[in-house]
Amino acid sequence: MNTPARRDGTPDRRRKNPRTGGRAEAPRSDRRSDSSQPVTGKKPHRKGNSTKSTGTGKTGRSAAPKRAPQRTLPTISNARPARHQHRDAAPAPLPAGEGVRLQKVLAQAGVASRRAAEELIAAGRVEVDGNIVVEQGLRVDPENAVIRVDGIRVVINKDLVHLVLNKPRGWQSTMSDDLGRPCVGDIVSERVAAGQRLFHVGRLDADTEGLLLLTNDGELAHRLMHPSFEVPKTYLATVKGVLGRGVGKQLRAGVELEDGPARVDEFALLEVHEGQSLVRIVLHEGRKHIVRRLLDAVGHPVIRLVRTHIGAVALGDQRPGTLRVLNRQEVGGLYQAVKL
Predict the structure, then answer these.
(1) In terms of domain of life, where is this protein from (predicted)?
(2) pTM metric for this prediction
């Protein structure tokens, strides 16, 4: 059998490799390892299905795994967020050594123990002057700082007074009376003598009894009385007659009075007994004798009238003529209702 010749005419003495189907195999001395192949910028083309299943497609290229974008952990717990989450600006720090640590202020206000207050701060549930606070040890001015927990204001100023009086029937809603009639001022005379200047939030006429708020925070008293803040007030009224089905609808729709239309926010018939009806009325207006005039207008004059609620503050079973101090939740609810 003739040996094939090279281009230069010399015979080609390379052996045939049976594995390659009869193709000539280069001598071992002429082979180069993969590691010694020159770098040309192109990867050698490989025949056959030798690509490993890497999920990279038909090219067989093993692409580097993509890293998942790193999440930045929130510093505020969204479980029970504070009302305002302004995190752009932090409260202005006080000079070194001044003020009181925030967790101590919260503990003194009865919000929680110091350790629990630190947990509230870390959870982002405390704000100072409209800014969420998450760092521990912040010093604040308890006399001027506006502090809220879960959106409810914490009153720190020890000079502020918030009282509930169950005004008895027949007493005047004034701090003094020129005619010598019994008045609210008689009940708080010792506090006034001690230097407390108290405001009564609205008035109850002499024949109306029940809840009357007293405070020395003039701005709070003004806002609670102003109808634009729509703080609801609840009354229980015993009226003459048995109310028809349309009376509640008429009062909710509005009744024309001599000083303009008026309506109730809620109305419910509670009881009927011996020709009298007990009703519950909720409204946010504060015009003089507004409840009595509304019920007179629908043909059911008032026999007895008691105010039981102002906002979230309830009279409960407090005895007539007695005072009690509002708790932290009640005070916070009042400030929240009037956006203070």
Answers:
(1) Bacteria
(2) 0.61
* Cα–Cα dist 211/191, whole Å: 19
Residue-wise pLDDT for 262-312, tens only, equals 999 999 999 998 889 999 999 988 788 999 999 999 999 999 999 999 988
Residue 334 parent element (H or E): helix 328-337
User: pLDDT tens digits for 132-178?
Assistant: 888 888 888 877 788 888 888 887 777 788 899 999 999 998 888 88
Q: Which residue has the tokens 């009282």?
A: 163
Distance CA 237, CA 295 (A): 9
**CA 232, CA 280: separation in Å to the nearest integer?**
13
* CATH for the 232-310 domain, from 3.40.50.1240, 3.30.70.1560, 3.30.1330.90, 3.40.640.10: 3.30.70.1560
Q: Which residues are tagged catalytic? A: 205
Alpha helices in 173-323 (DSSP H): 184-187, 189-193, 218-225, 246-253, 290-297
Residue 257 to residue 249: CA distance in whole angstroms: 17
> 134 near 122, Cβ under 8 Å?
yes
Under CATH, which architecture does the 75-157 domain have?
Answer: Roll (3.10)
Q: Torsions phi, psi of 323, nearest 5?
A: -115, 155
Alpha carbon distance 308, 154 (integer Å): 24
The architecture that CATH gives domain 162-227+315-337 is 2-Layer Sandwich (3.30)
Q: Cβ distance 206 to 170 under 8 Å?
A: yes
